[in-house]
Amino acid sequence: MKRRLISAAIVLFSILVPVFFPLCASAKANFDAYYYVPEYYSTVEEAMGRLKNITPMLMGIWDGKLRSAEADRFGMRFFWTDGKATAIPFDKLSWMRIYQRTEYNGPCPWYVLAALSVEGEESPSVRAETRGTAESLYSILATLAAAAGNPVEVRGLGFSFVDPTEKDLKGAGLKKQAGITATIVEKGSPVEKGGLREGDIILSVSGKAVESAEQYKKEVLPFTRTADTLEMEVLRKGKKQVFRVRPMPAEKPQVLLF
Known about the structure:
alpha+beta, Pdz3 Domain, 6 helices, 2 domains, 27% helix, PH-domain like, single chain, five-stranded antiparallel sheet, 14 strands
């Protein structure tokens, strides 16, 4: 009996890890992230009509198909055929990202992650049949969030980062804390086109030194949102490289109301 319970726990763990991949860097190996700038629909009704069109191509995390959905200024709620529901509160929605689950032959391998601003709160995901469906859902959610008065942050350069680990620093030949490590580089993003790769340590951006993740967010990131061209100095396997990045302008959402 004990052996059966242990086996069941292992099976459950193997399911949970890929399902909640976005919040766990070590579990993202089977997922690719994609850059996307949303298209904003002209009315709330148009956005909801588009959602109706893609309903057969959406699934919940636990394989339920979309039975119905509703939206108001408070958020979006998806109801699945397996009896579960997914809620995305617009006032807590910070940003979104599209992922593809690789090495997977089942239905709906694309995901739209809705990252919430509340620390420790699980960020919901919705699965999609194709990349185009995922992009449509992203645009729908971005439109509705803007209509609710909470426009989402568009992922400007298209990468995620953390402070370098001791292993990162040692591998790069650095003796003290410096820079940030690129953990996720979105396919098709400005930084990917410029040459950034996962694992690179970013040392400076257009002459502005990068000291830590916190310092980058406060002092460097705001600058990257207004510049036409950026120069990134990175360390890759101990060697310095410099490449140019051209940020992609994002469309501003129209003023809509529910």
